[in-house]
Amino acid sequence: MYGIKELDVNTLQSYMDEGKKIRLLDVRGVAEMAQGMIPDAEKLPLHTLPARLNDMDADELTVLYCRSGARSAQGVGFMAQQGFDNVYNLRGGIIAWVQNGMPLEAVPVS
């Protein structure tokens, strides 16, 4: 996507394996999250992002993902406009994550 910084699944997994500090945000809806999340991701439905920006460090490596990468790309664009320079979209979203054989974490229904 033009103007949106992205990471692919293998790069994200490498960062995670290296123990790199990453804030991983799942911007899908709660019902979608119930199907599983990338390990160590935080729940942050896209519509809540503007209200939560003050809780975030603009310099922290932050990766957003959704089902396919479209909604998370919108979130990355919004965050970039607000001065977040180290924010990335997970290319292909959780679909690409699963297709690459990466693990999911079960999410308790709340």
Automatic annotation (TrEMBL):
<dbReference type="InterPro" id="IPR001763">
    <property type="entry name" value="Rhodanese-like_dom"/>
</dbReference>
<protein>
    <recommendedName>
        <fullName>Rhodanese domain-containing protein</fullName>
    </recommendedName>
</protein>
<dbReference type="InterPro" id="IPR036873">
    <property type="entry name" value="Rhodanese-like_dom_sf"/>
</dbReference>
<dbReference type="Pfam" id="PF00581">
    <property type="entry name" value="Rhodanese"/>
</dbReference>
<feature type="domain" description="Rhodanese">
    <location>
        <begin position="18"/>
        <end position="106"/>
    </location>
</feature>
<dbReference type="InterPro" id="IPR050229">
    <property type="entry name" value="GlpE_sulfurtransferase"/>
</dbReference>
